[in-house]
Every structure is written in C-alpha cells, then in structure tokens.
C-alpha cells in the first residue's frame, strides 16, 4: 500500500490526517486517496509526507487534481524529484489550500493557521 | 531556485526531444535529485511523453474497437444480403418461386442453388419458378450458373420455369446455350403460376 493513514492532533489541538506516501502511485491508488478526502475525511486538514522515490503514473497525476476540492493540505518531502513532480501537477491549479514544505514542523504550523 | 546549466543535461534533453520527435515516445530524460529549475523542464518533458503514450494507447484501442465494429457490420451485412438474395417463396403447396435480383456470380449462384435445393427437398416441390424480372443483364458467369441451377432442380424431380426474361436478356440466354435446356419460359410470374396450377388440375388450362 503506498498510503498509510494516521489520525493525529496538531500542537494547537487541531485534528488532522497524516498520510505517509511511498512507492509507485497508479490510478487505483489515486482514486482511493481522493475518495478518502472527498468522503470520510472531507474538509479534514491533511499532512502528506511523501518519501523519496515516490512516483505517479500519468493517470494518477491527473486524478489527484481532484484533491483541489479537499481541505487544507500540506505536503512534506525532502526529495527534489518529488517536489518537482508535485509542482508540475499543481502548477495550473494555484490552490491556496495546498503547500509543499521541506520540514514537517513548518507544515504543521501552516496547517494550524488554516481555517477548517 | 538556482539553475545549473550542465552541458550533459542539455545534451540529454535534446537527445530525448529528437528521439520523441521521430515517434519513439518510450524514451525518457534521466532524472536526478537536482535542486534547480532545469529539473522542472526535464520532468515536464517526461510527463509530456507519458501523455503522448497514453493518447497513443487510447487511439490504438479506439481504432481496434472501430475495426471490430466494422468487421461485425460487414458480417451482418453479408448475412443480410445472403438472406435477401434467396427469398424462396412457397406460392402454392409444392410450388416455389424465387425472384432473382442483380448480378449473379458463381459464389452467389452456389449459395442460391444450395438454399433452393434444400427448399425443393423440404417442400417436396414439383415446380420451381425462377423470376428474372430483376435481372437487367446477365454477366459472363451468370448464365452457366443459372443453367446449373436448373439442371440440379431437374435432378430432384422438379420442373423449372423461367419468367420475366427481359428482351435484352433473351439473346444472351440463347447465345450461352440456355435454350438447350428446354425450360419453359413465360412472360410473368403469374403466367407461370397459372400454368403450374393448371398442370396440377387446380385451374383450367391457360393459353400456352
């Protein structure tokens, strides 16, 4: 499974979903991911930690754009390749609810500032 | 973001673009963890190639689907044409009529003969009326095929009558030896039916 979900609370007490992402993400994985955040986790704050070496198929990349309708979403990665992939995927979206960070604490601080 | 222009990376980018330009979309730019804007371009090109492959696959799948559908339609059309080309009608118990329309080549004649002989046997037919009203001209292979059909009907013990022979078709029949069969020819299908029914004693003898 490329996704591992945890329900946690930020230092300021806001609940959020932390997702660890790794491996190859295909369309089925992307559909499952989007379904979670447009379904049971709708409007929940999301922190996705994407491991180095994570790759997305073309169809998965397109499907993940539907996450635009989900709640505030911070991604943490220290891989230039993953960051570039995410930048390319989200380039045309200009979504103020989504940001990429290199540091998890900074990401959590940003999430805490976002309205639900 | 910094930009490290490396000759090797530019060279590789160009190689990939040239290869893709020749139609090989399987080629990819080798990516490394470089924190610079050129990585966006390199990955962007790879994503574009992914998209091209995806579209190519979709096109191939659609093409295959269209071909399958076209083959299916051709088969259905062939079946329909075959069914329409042998409309054997029982005009009276033991009397079959077959209106022939269009060009009759060897293959079609074989199909018609086979279907007709089957019906002659099944209906225990004594008479078969071949109506040529819809045959405007007899192609080279049509007459021999028609004559074989008439002979085969005779071998099953049924009598064959030809109707609706057009003036321009009659000389062709003579030229091709059709008159040697001594098949009775009449102007219209109704004339033939009247003759047959008279033979069977159902009607008074018509003028012959």
Automatic annotation (TrEMBL), chain A:
Domain of life: Bacteria
InterPro entries the UniProt entry points to: STAS_dom_sf (IPR036513)
Organism: Nannocystis punicea
UniProt-recorded name of the protein: STAS/SEC14 domain-containing protein
Automatic annotation (TrEMBL), chain B:
Keyword DNA-binding: no
Keywords noted in UniProt: Coiled coil
Classification via Pfam families: STAS
Coiled-coil stretches noted in the UniProt entry, renumbered to this chain: 49-79
Domain STAS: 85-196
Top-level lineage group: Bacteria
Position of the signal peptide: none
InterPro entries assigned to the protein according to its UniProt record, in alphabetical order: Bact_StressResp_Reg, STAS_dom, STAS_dom_sf
Name of this protein: STAS domain-containing protein
């Amino acid at each position: 499974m490329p996704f591992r979900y945890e329900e946690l609370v930020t230092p300021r007490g806001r609940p959020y979903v932390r997702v660890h992402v790794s491996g190859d993400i295909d369309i089925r994985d992307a559909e499952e991911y989007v379904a979670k955040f447009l379904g049971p986790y709708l409007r929940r704050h999301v922190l996705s930690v994407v491991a180095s070496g994570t790759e997305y198929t073309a169809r998965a990349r397109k499907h993940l754009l539907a996450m635009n309708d989900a709640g505030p979403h911070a991604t943490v990665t220290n891989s230039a390749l993953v960051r570039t992939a995410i930048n390319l995927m989200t380039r045309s979206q200009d979504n103020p609810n989504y940001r990429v960070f290199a540091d998890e604490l900074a990401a959590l601080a940003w999430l805490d500032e976002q309205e639900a | 973001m910094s930009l490290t222009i490396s000759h090797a990376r530019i060279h590789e980018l160009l190689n990939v673009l040239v290869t893709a330009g020749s139609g090989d979309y399987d080629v990819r730019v080798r990516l490394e963890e470089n924190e610079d804007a050129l990585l966006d371009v390199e990955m962007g090109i790879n994503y574009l190639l992914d998209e091209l492959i995806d579209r190519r696959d979709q096109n191939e799948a659609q093409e295959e689907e269209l071909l399958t559908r076209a083959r299916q339609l051709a088969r259905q059309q062939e079946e329909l044409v075959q069914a329409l080309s042998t409309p054997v009608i029982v005009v009276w118990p033991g009397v079959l009529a077959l209106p022939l329309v269009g060009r009759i080549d060897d293959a079609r004649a074989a199909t018609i003969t086979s279907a007709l002989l089957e019906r002659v046997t099944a209906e225990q037919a004594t008479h078969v009326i071949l109506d040529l009203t819809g045959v405007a001209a007899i192609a080279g292979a049509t007459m021999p095929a028609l004559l074989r059909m008439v002979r085969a009907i005779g071998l099953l013990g049924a009598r064959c009558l030809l109707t609706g022979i057009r003036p321009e078709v009659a000389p062709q029949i003579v030229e091709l030896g059709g008159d040697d069969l001594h098949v009775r020819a009449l102007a219209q299908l109704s004339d033939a039916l009247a003759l047959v029914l008279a033979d069977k004693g159902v009607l008074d003898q018509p003028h012959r």
